[in-house]
Amino acid sequence: MNELMRLNKFISHNTKYSRREADKLIQEGKIRVNGRTQTDLSLKVSYDDAIEVNNNRIFKKEQFTVIVYNKPKGELVSKKDDRGRRTIYDTLPKKFSHFLSVGRLDYASEGLLLLTDAAAIASALMDSDLERVYYLKIKGSVTDAMIEAMQKGLELSDASKGGHSHSKIRSMTFEPFLSYQIFGSSGGYTKLKVMLKEGKNRELRRFFAHFDADVVDLKRVSYGRVDLGVLKSGKHRFLTNGEYDDLRDFLKENKVYY
Question: Which of 4, 62, 67, 158 is the most exposed, having the fewest neighbouring CB atoms within 10 Å of its CB?
Answer without folding.
Answer: 62
